[in-house]
Amino acid sequence: MKPHFPFMTNQMKNRSFYFGLICVAFLAFIAQQISQTPFAQQAHFSALIIAILLGMLFGNSVYKRYESHIEKGVLFAKGPVLRAGIVLYGFRLTLQDITDVGINAILTDALMLLSTFLLTCFIGIRYLKIDKQLVYLTASGCSICGAAAVMAAAPVTKAESHKVSVAIAVVVIFGTLSIFLYPLFYPWATTLMTPHQFGIYVGSSVHEVAQVYAIGGNISPVVADTAVITKMIRVMMLAPFLLGLSWLLTKEAQAGEQRKITIPWFALWFIAVAVFNSFNLLPQTLVKSLVELDTFLLVSAMAALGLTTHIGAIKQAGFKPLILGTLVYLWLIVGGLLVNYEAGLFLS
């Protein structure tokens, strides 16, 4: 039974938008503080992951009791706030980043993105019979930039919150495993490629930007710099990827269903911001502030996502998403190594 607040006037009830935003912002602030603790940093738990966990904790306990008083703000954080965060993500990138690593990284990124997405969809839909929306979300996260890509693809696929959470869980689990695994076989990989090439391999096959940072930092500055730039090029492919995904979903619509192509305008603005940032027209202090604002917006969106995610719905997904994640992860490691090696030979 939901509690009744006698003092809550109709005017205040209409303020659920503001109350919801305050609630989400508070969870985002707490998540960012926790992410700065030694334990979180050693475990490489980003504020994004902590925020969704906090959101799920409260979403499956006290949220239902107060949902009517904060729902509008929470839904706003899942929608426009998320899209604003994706747009501002462009301030982390410049076109100069591409020239720093050359055509090898661009070609490898494109091959890995396309092959990973197609393989994930083929295995997930045809053989594992997983829900298509969940497969597309998982494929997006594995192909581009982990949780951020899953969140960006969510409005395009119009997926429910629990499907988004399952996809994020899959990419986080295997991306975190990469932090410990990649440095272990680096000594062996150097018999096949240079540190620069290994950096391209890391950037083109690891899920999250933060995980790429962690892996490169554990190996060498050369690997770290190359891996991060390669990863950022992969992130820049997010916008054309979302346009392609929107077109694919439109083509898949039933013949009797009239569905227009949904253009993810926020993805185009993301490219525009990255291009604008390449000209260095803004002071670096302002760009740094915009990046910090972007981080807070994305963390807030993750908190809102967690609040609207129900544990029961995740349990219903079963083990199939984990099986899919395992198979795709094997491709990222082995297939990614082969793609990088062959690309290096082709362009050498």
From TrEMBL:
Listed transmembrane segments: 43-63, 75-95, 101-122, 134-154, 166-186, 198-216, 228-249, 261-283, 295-314, 321-341
- Gene Ontology terms, cellular component aspect? plasma membrane
Give a single Pfam family match: Cons_hypoth698
Membrane topology term: Multi-pass membrane protein
What this protein is called in its record is PSE family sulfate exporter
Q: Which taxonomic lineage does the organism of this UniProt entry have?
A: Bacteria, Pseudomonadati, Pseudomonadota, Gammaproteobacteria, Pasteurellales
Q: What is its main location?
A: membrane
Q: Where does this protein reside within or beyond the cell?
A: Cell membrane
Key words, A-Z: Cell membrane, Membrane, Transmembrane, Transmembrane helix
* Transmembrane as UniProt keyword: yes
Q: Give the originating organism.
A: Aggregatibacter segnis ATCC 33393
Q: Which InterPro entries match?
A: UPF0324_pro, UPF0324_YeiH-like
Q: Which family does it belong to?
A: Belongs to the UPF0324 family.
